[in-house]
Amino acid sequence: METNKHPGDEVPPETAQSGKLPCGTCQGSGVKDGKPCPNCGGTGEITVLVGDA
Description:
- The protein is mostly beta strands.
- The chain is 0% helix and 26% strand.
- The two termini are 22 Å apart.
């Protein structure tokens, strides 16, 4: 099963009880040093677990 998980994501985006936060590496811009942010893959967001199952 392939996911859209980026290096900074805690969990894959399709995970139940997950949500998006601005990326701490690029402060939500999606760009770091003139290139797509390596932490969020250029989206400006990371996926985190927000609930407990």
